Design the sequence.
């Protein structure tokens, strides 16, 4: 069975501060995919990134960066120089081919960026 | 190419009524996943369907819930005799195929969700 843990339920920062969201996953499968989604107050799910288990390269996209470490089963997400528009709930998720690629989500981390 | 569509966006039902949630996948997509998000929680997988087939319903409650994805028309998630605990956001996602082979991945595209409120 798969499991995703986001230990931080809520993080509050002041604008321009950096914020790192932790994600730890569990799976016995060797082929799997990791995701981050953003859910703003409007409620829709916004896809941010997908990584596969064979690619441990870290990735940067604008103010967003992701640190994938198989040794610690972690896929952490950092927002640099946070902005008020970053206020949302962020979900980490995992899928494995053997399970039909259904997504297993973490509980989410609510980020509140204050002006 | 229109995205995944869900309707209604908001649905209010009284206890004991039936709720029908519809999901129209993206054009060319033959796989649909349904997820439920209870208030203040993450999304939980419910069911995975291919056209006319249920592939995985391991996340579906045993009673009152059913899902279908007919050859023609949208996928339907049906909740009979709703209770207050069914109040949640229900998201569907569509994919061109379930499995793409090692090293490849078939993206799931999410709809905007249906917010069900049971009074």
Sequence:
């Amino acid at each position: 069975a798969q499991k995703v843990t986001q230990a931080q339920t809520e993080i509050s920062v002041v604008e321009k501060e950096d914020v790192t969201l932790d994600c730890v996953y569990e799976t016995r499968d060797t082929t799997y995919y990791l995701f981050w989604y953003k859910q703003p107050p409007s409620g829709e799910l916004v896809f941010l990134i997908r990584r596969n288990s064979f690619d441990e390269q870290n990735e940067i996209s604008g103010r967003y960066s992701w640190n994938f470490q198989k040794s610690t089963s972690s896929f952490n997400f950092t927002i640099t120089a946070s902005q008020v528009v970053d206020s949302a709930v962020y979900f980490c998720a995992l899928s494995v081919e053997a399970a039909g690629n259904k997504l297993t989500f973490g509980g989410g981390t609510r980020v509140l960026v204050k002006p | 190419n229109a995205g995944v569509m869900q309707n209604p966006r908001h649905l209010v039902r009284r206890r004991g009524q039936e709720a029908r949630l519809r999901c129209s996948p993206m054009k060319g997509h033959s796989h649909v996943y349904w997820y439920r998000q209870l208030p203040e929680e993450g999304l939980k997988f419910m069911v995975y369907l291919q056209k006319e087939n249920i592939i995985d319903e391991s996340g579906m409650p045993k009673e009152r819930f059913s899902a279908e994805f007919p050859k023609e028309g949208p996928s339907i998630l049906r909740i009979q005799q709703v209770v207050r605990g069914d109040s949640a956001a229900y998201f569907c996602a569509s994919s061109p195929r379930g499995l793409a082979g090692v090293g490849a991945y078939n993206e799931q595209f999410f709809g905007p969700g249906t917010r069900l409120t049971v009074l």
User: Anything to note?
Assistant: The radius of gyration of chain A is 14 Å. The longest strand of chain A covers residues 88-96. The mean pLDDT of chain A is 93. The CA atoms of residues 68 and 75 of chain A lie 4 Å apart.
